[in-house]
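Known limitations

Files may contain more than one protein. Parsers should not assume a single record per file. Below, a two-record file is shown to illustrate correct handling: read the sequence, read the token line, then continue until end of file.
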Amino acid sequence: MPEIGRTRRRPRLILGLGDQARIYDRVAKDYHVRVISPFEEGVRFRLPIDVRRILRQWRRDGTFRRRVVIDFGCGIGEALDLVAGKVGFVAGIDFSAGMLRQSRKRLERQGFQIHRIDGGPGLRTLRRLIEKRQLSTRQQPTIALASGNLLKLGALSASCDLALAINAIGPPTVAAAYEMFASIAACARRGGALISVLPSLDTMYHLYALERRHRVSPSRVGTIDEATSIYTDGRERAKFFLPEEITQLCKDNHLAVERLEKIRYPWSLMRLSGWGYYPRSPRIWDWYVVARKK
């Protein structure tokens, strides 16, 4: 549940791509002060468990050296920590240079050498690196960071065995959100997996009900357009999702859902965000989905 500002507000703005990138560049410098993520302490997040399970399977069948994992919208590299150096090829993609710098610093502190891919043809270069790496599986694991637009991933079609998209899918229109989901899903090979965290629409209705009960103005957390499921707070707009919508999106993109569950955030984090504090009520949540490419 990424947020931005002095009290941690969501950084999904209806601006040009360059403007959005500059906003995320600023956020990257003090990420954990300005962003709430499922990697926060106190959040029960299954991603590490599920990734370890996949890695164990690849080691058992002896295929881990030729496996490819891509983190779409990698941010500061928290999910990359789970796979870097453990499979043949790991890549992080983000449109924010600031986020990519933080990912690089995180990985280099662990002693990894990073392939940095910048510029317009970056994703085509990344695809060539993946193909070259798979021709010679005796190399040391490769780690790459690339600048890229998650709506334009055609160069990476059917390129990875595990696609990660952790709070990366939240464009300001329904059409763009569905297109981004499809773009990322298309990068998974047949038999590969997509693991994603998506902002929850139903959690907003839960918040509104709590506000009514406690007589708090709903303007503090923005509003939802029920016709489009678009969240709005001032000029911020982002697509939020219902569980049945996620299931249908997976079906439409040839993915079989293996797990769909809530990631619940402690009320202490929500109090910091300015989204309320109701410790006796169920926590608010994002949706966590694990799906397999058919």
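...continuing to the second record:
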Amino acid sequence: MRKGACERVTSETALDVRVDVDGDGETSIATGLPMFDHLLAQLAFHSGFGIRVAGRSLDGIAHHLIEDAGIALGRAFAEALGDRAGIRRYGSALIPMDDALVRVALDLGGRFFIRYDVPVAAQQVEGLEVAMVAHFFRSFACNASITLHADLLAGEDPHHCIEAAFKAIARALREAAAPTGASQALTTKGLF
């Protein structure tokens, strides 16, 4: 079973994150930030992964909780993938959500890079600071060693644009993490 966990306790936050890439685990999200919880639930559902995030802010600052959630989720996901042998490695998705259309392409090949181009015309969505969405994905991708490209191709409603990004990233992760049955890494180098 491909499972990973990360417990992250700092002077600012306390998080316990579990990931089951094969989807046999439960999904429960509780950070105390309703919109963030909603988005993480979309990530879990559309990836097909079992994801558990139990976290709270110790200093009352949402920025720290969202950043640390990205770090912990990235580390747990990387642990679940192990040496990454026998996975498809690449994934992509084109996801519409009403007016919004988001395109994502990613590589689980062990190198970090992110280009997140999902601009929205709002500072906050349902109490969530919009700038934190890109920051969450940067923290996640860095700690999971993922190359991630996300583009907003169309969209006006900020909620739809952000939610479509989470869904597209989830679907691309699902595709890239799918087992191939091979025993080696999908690289000419022999390992990631």
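Parsers that stop after the first record will miss the second one. For reference, the second record is described as follows. DSSP finds four helices and ten strands in the chain.
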